[in-house]
Amino acid sequence: MLESLITSKTKIKLLMKFFLNTNNHGYLRQLAKEFNESTNSIRLELNKLEEAKILKSQKVGRNKVYQANDAHPLFFDIRQIVLKSTGIDQVLSNIIDKLGEIHFAFIRGDYAVGKDSGLIDLVVVGKDINAAELERVRSKTEGLISRKINVLMLSLSEFDRLSANFNIEPKLVLLEKNDENL
Fold it and tell me: Over the chain, what is the mean pLDDT?
C-alpha cells in the first residue's frame, strides 16, 4: 500500500522503522547496515524527513540519532497509515477485540523493531481464550493482510514465568490492561 503512495523504498523503510514502533530510534550507519543500503541514500531521506519535521534528531556522542516526531501534526495519521499498510490495525480489530478477556497483547520480532518481514509474531495474554475462535480469526486476518501471523497464547501465570524473556527483546504493545498481576 505504501509503495503506491511513496516511490522511495528507503523512505518507506524509514517510516516503517520509526512509526511501527515509535520507541525505535537509529543513526545513519546503523540504519544503512540494517536496511543494506548506502549511507548516502539513507542520509538523503533522513534529511528530507527531518526537514519536514516528521523525524526529530538529537546528538548522542558522535552520532545523530533519529526518532519519530510525536509532536508533528500528522504523527498519528502517518502512524495509522503505516499500521494499516502492514495490517497491524487488522490484527487489533479482528483478533484482539474478538477474543474475550485479554490482559496484554504485543508484537515481538521484526515488526517490533520496524521491519516488515511478512511474519507478525503476536503474543496474547489472557484468561479463557477460545483457541478455536483465535485460529479462525487468525486465518481470516492473514488472508486480509497478506501476512503470516504467529500467535502465542499465554495465561497470566505462564506470562509471569516467561516475562523475563519477553522483557529483554523489543515489543510493540497493542493492548495493556492495568492489572497488578502484570
Answer: 86
| Predicted confidence (pLDDT) per residue in 169-180, tens digit | 888 888 887 654
Orientation angle between helical segments 9-20 and 75-86, nearest 10 degrees: 100
Claim to verify: residue 97 and residue 30 sit in the same structural domain: no
- Identify the burial level of 60 via C-beta atoms within 10 angstroms of its C-beta, where 0-12 means exposed, 13-18 middle and 19 or more buried: exposed
Element (H, E) at 18: helix 9-20
28-35 and 39-51 helices, crossing angle to 10°: 120
Asked whether the beta carbons of 152 and 73 are under 8 A apart, the reply is no
CA 66, CA 17: separation in Å to the nearest integer?
Answer: 11
DSSP annotation of 73 reads T
| Alpha carbons 15 and 115: distance in angstroms, whole number | 10
Bridge partners (DSSP) listed for residue 104: 125, 176
Task: State the CATH number of the domain containing residue 48.
Answer: 1.10.10.10
- For 136, the domain range is 87-176
Q: In the predicted model, is pLDDT for residue 99 greater than 80?
A: no
What CATH number is attached to the domain comprising 127?
3.30.460.10
**CA distance linking residue 25 with residue 161, whole number of Å:** 30
